[in-house]
């Protein structure tokens, strides 16, 4: 059994914790949090040992009648692998903590690529993380792009990717995020940083990305163009994407027009939190015009990186190879819709 | 065992079907639907016998490879009680269908009050539905108001209720609903129809309601004023509301600022679809100024009527009294947060 | 001629500057700004002398090729009256600046009431500002409420006001403001601070206010209840409100359902920036139930305080009484729709 | 003087009417409307002769105390050119009306391309409309794309255009339009109809377009890729676009991040209704990677076709060539920011 600790118990951290608990070969030794909000209460109800991430604030948990198992240092000491899911930039501050205890650590997409030994996507470069001390699971958007690029690159070769990322303004509970009624080129310069981020996984890929931000909270939506090297038909590409375990090609007859119905579909299916771990690709959008492949995909920012974190734990601990790990993760979570 | 059929398998119908399945004393004999969309596929995966609501469209289910158990008439024949959860106005068209088969039927809040023998709220007037043939479970907003009025009326007596209902523009998957960037007095005339609707439950209550519509999908929010007859303190009212089984007084320390965090709280708690069956009342908002009680409550339009439908089934079938039914329903669903 | 300077040239400041220019008895001696954004460029194109509000940042204007007339101190020295329209809290920091130059100053609603000698609403308490050194023009919401309270109090006497303020999340250009998809009780405690703010104008008024924030940018909307002392009919109240110069009773036949159509109406009418200086009250919403008056009004947060600032300048300078000033302001701006 | 009539006095029609009035060589002989809403009242206040578009509803104008000048047939008879700005599909129904009176007519982008002799964009194919009886001014999005394609095609030659159109869900006053909180691939199939629409102006252009719809009302935003035939630098392209009269390259120092600030900029500049007749291209977004040009542009759906309609009137009437007409239109309106 791998002993896993999670530092930072918010949107990503709580999902990773639940996913770890679901694995046959892992044990959650605890989670660390800074403040006693509704998520802290739930961690305790779930029976997850709760550690204070910041010593000075530990008494706030007392005040809220929430029992602590200790301080984050103890959690790091106990864990075989730590998953850091703190806000962007805090992971970097925590690096020395993990190093002091000689505990390998995973970081999230909000951290810089050069903080770590390697960036990670299970489908694309699992093996690169073998035995690494510091690994970054790439962001939700980069994960979504990497899952698409990997099979297309293998099957056809890619001349160039051009992707417009229409990003959600904030997560559903982030009430201080805008915009309320606008479409923001974001960043206003082109190409955006997302392309170089994909290149941390595919160093030789030609990719230009453009980012925007809109008043929606449920999912990002990608408008994708891939100029392929080889000949392809829409049907072949569709079959290829249907054959991948973490891309869900939405069948036309479901009559799903956007993220609202996708999330409802996931909730109806009993998915925890209505999470959509897969890239959700509209079947009818997959088109080939000459060498140009086009498609739309929706990316659930809150959860697509969750199975990737689980796989990265095994990669770092060298307890499984890519295929074994992905299969175990998928089975344990209930991947597939 | 009560045999229950559900006609209209959308937002409300699918939730009522699941809730019926969860009851120890009920059996779901089937659901009827008009079109083979994602919800139809899910019904079949759930093992719910699926009936065609409209004979002419039955072949569309064939085309989508979805097996039908028959036509809605057969479902009505088989059921002890039918729950009609079709869109506003369709319930009225279906009334004769239920009468032909002598099957008592429940309707939803979108139907007119005079379609039925009695309107229904479990906490307030369960007994009125005993043995009735046609019962209307009042709308989400009226249910939310009734649950508040009942204990206050009993405990203090009510001089007058004044409520401003800030309503969500559409449900999360209703992508054709607006407004996008506006606050609409809706209806523009005052008082709105919601007050008279509450009076179908409390005929003698003085209540004036004002309605608005805003660009949000998650929950309605009520700004409530109740002029009480007796003396009350905020603490007493809070205790009273905390003692009710279907009103959830949100504790301050959860740090929940709106419907986004409320839904996340429910999803984290493992609630199916993140449903909030209870009125969600902000604890810190409960205030008394002279005779005037004020508070804010959020109402989950998609689910607060679900336990009420379950209770109404027993009320109509006369298999339990109010307290027994409410307790059974609550236990089976997992009411309480 | 009154020499007027404006410090803080944003949403409010630029409108006040334009309004001052439109007055027959005032001269705009300049505006002060901190940064050379699109508003700064426009000030210069308008021929408004532009002063640097912060000395250290003056060179940024050079870099953007925008000519400065000097530093804010010079502007204060030159002005008979300063209008401070800087962000909340900055006005307080600027107070000593105005005192040093012995220049009376107006502040906006974002400042605390106890910063000033008197809070101000032209219709309600013009005379209180006579000769004052520091006057606060109350916020957009308080201005909207005061214009309603004044005639009702005079005509009928008011027992109590209960108002639910459904507030816009941010102004149209404030892209960093949320919420995106939520309805937030804000503040979560009741009553909100708006009631006490109205009492800075009507010290003896009984008023309880409740605030919410929603994802809309165009206008606030107030759901109003006034318990009147005397007998009233809806028609009488309507006539009373139609007779006021800064309340616009929206006629039914215009078929205006919200702020979007109201703003379009104002833009079609040629109003600068589509500004609605008046309270916009839906005619069909004005209702009387027993002693309770109800109505909906929309308040244009960006502009309703503009005529009030203009009047406050004359009040402070003692160059006109309330009626004269209001008439001059209204004529110069083109009040009335 | 050219006598111009406008049939359909809504978003587009009222703007075209005002623009016609502003032209030195045109006279507005009247506008036709179906219902007496706020726009009808304004037409009369503007002194625009108002005709009933539908005879049976003429009395409704009486009821609203709005004087009619006659029926639409009389207007068509009187006009040298009619501009039809009725909702999509109604223009086609009106075609025979214009033919009966031998009055050449312009239609809007909501009509099918094969309804007319030629589709029209002033910059790209003015001459094609010479003497035509039925001309379609292409839609807001197609107009925006054509203005970009024309100079790039002339200067460099275009290998292929790939454009993702992030479209506003509805206009600001269209309160019944959604989505509220979603990003909708729309249409879900690729390529969208926008590409072929651009080909009604540039028949040989290789162009693939992808459409989405989001909860915003102010402007569309285009994420553009153009594979150029010749060598280009970002600076050259920028200069080229700055030299066009109907493309506004937004300077970085204005610090404009989206449509909200763009509209505020236009309102501050005194533009009627805050209209942005120009393509608004973010300067810092103009980038060249190899042969690929990228940029973001915002398109004001309510107004960018207005100057095109004015030019099309002259084109049809053969009273000016392209350059003369564009210059006259621009001068009369005050093009340029
Ligand atoms: N939410 C998304 O859409 C998303 C998607 C993919 C990746 N990410 C990345 O995941 C990381 C976490 O993001 P999130 O959305 O879960 O954030 P979040 O704010 O939801 O959660 C972060 C949690 O960390 C806690 N925290 C803050 N400071 C801490 C500290 N010093 N020590 C321990 N805990 C601390 C916070 O209290 C909070 O519970 C970021 O790098 C982010 O870029 C986020
Ligand atoms: N959604 C809410 O917020 C809400 C809340 C409380 C009450 N209600 C009421 O519940 C009722 C149902 O609303 P909903 O939101 O679930 O609607 P919905 O549109 O989500 O679901 C209605 C279902 O009925 C089906 N249907 C349509 N015509 C039918 C027919 N002739 N026979 C059988 N099925 C048919 C539709 O295909 C759909 O699956 C309405 O009366 C509504 O007013 C809705
Ligand atoms: N926008 C509204 O809805 C609204 C309505 C009524 C009252 N108010 C009040 O009006 C005041 C101004 O609000 P606003 O919306 O116009 O803000 P704003 O941010 O639009 O404008 C403020 C301006 O002041 C400038 N500024 C910042 N610091 C400064 C300084 N030290 N010296 C001089 N200028 C400085 C900013 O650059 C900006 O141009 C606040 O008190 C606010 O509460 C705002
Ligand atoms: N609004 C946009 O964003 C936009 C942009 C470019 C092109 N267009 C196109 O312009 C055309 C008009 O669109 P709009 O947005 O101005 O619509 P609109 O609904 O704002 O205005 C249409 C007007 O036509 C009137 N009308 C309806 N039926 C009529 C009839 N039979 N005879 C005369 N008038 C009638 C309506 O009352 C309304 O005043 C459509 O083809 C549309 O596709 C619209």
UniProtKB/TrEMBL annotation, chains A, B, C, D:
The residues the record assigns to binding NAD(+) are: 11-12, 110, 168, 301
Q: Which residues cross the membrane?
A: none
The terms under GO molecular function for this entry are: 4-hydroxy-tetrahydrodipicolinate reductase; glyceraldehyde-3-phosphate dehydrogenase (NAD+) (phosphorylating) activity; NAD binding; NADP binding
Q: Name one GO biological process term.
A: glycolytic process
Gene Ontology cellular component?
A: cytoplasm
**Where's the active site on this chain?**
140
* Keywords, sorted A to Z: Cytoplasm, Glycolysis, NAD, NADP, Oxidoreductase
Pathway annotation from the record = Carbohydrate degradation; glycolysis; pyruvate from D-glyceraldehyde 3-phosphate: step 1/5
The record's InterPro entries line, in alphabetical order, gives:
DapB_N, GlycerAld/Erythrose_P_DH, GlycerAld_3-P_DH_AS, GlycerAld_3-P_DH_cat, GlycerAld_3-P_DH_NAD(P)-bd, Glyceraldehyde-3-P_DH_2_arc, NAD(P)-bd_dom_sf
Give the Glyceraldehyde 3-phosphate dehydrogenase NAD(P) binding domain ranges.
2-140
The domain of life is Archaea
* Assigned EC number: 1.2.1.59
Q: Which annotated residues bind D-glyceraldehyde 3-phosphate?
A: 139-141, 194-195
Q: Which reaction does it catalyse?
A: D-glyceraldehyde 3-phosphate + phosphate + NAD(+) = (2R)-3-phospho-glyceroyl phosphate + NADH + H(+); D-glyceraldehyde 3-phosphate + phosphate + NADP(+) = (2R)-3-phospho-glyceroyl phosphate + NADPH + H(+)
Task: Tell me one Pfam family matched here.
Answer: DapB_N
Where in or outside the cell it occurs: the entry states: Cytoplasm
The entry describes its oligomerization and partners as: Homotetramer.
Q: To which protein family does this belong?
A: Belongs to the glyceraldehyde-3-phosphate dehydrogenase family.
According to UniProt, the name of this protein is: Glyceraldehyde-3-phosphate dehydrogenase
Q: Which organism is it from?
A: Halococcus dombrowskii
Which classification does the entry list for the species? Archaea, Methanobacteriati, Methanobacteriota, Stenosarchaea group, Halobacteria
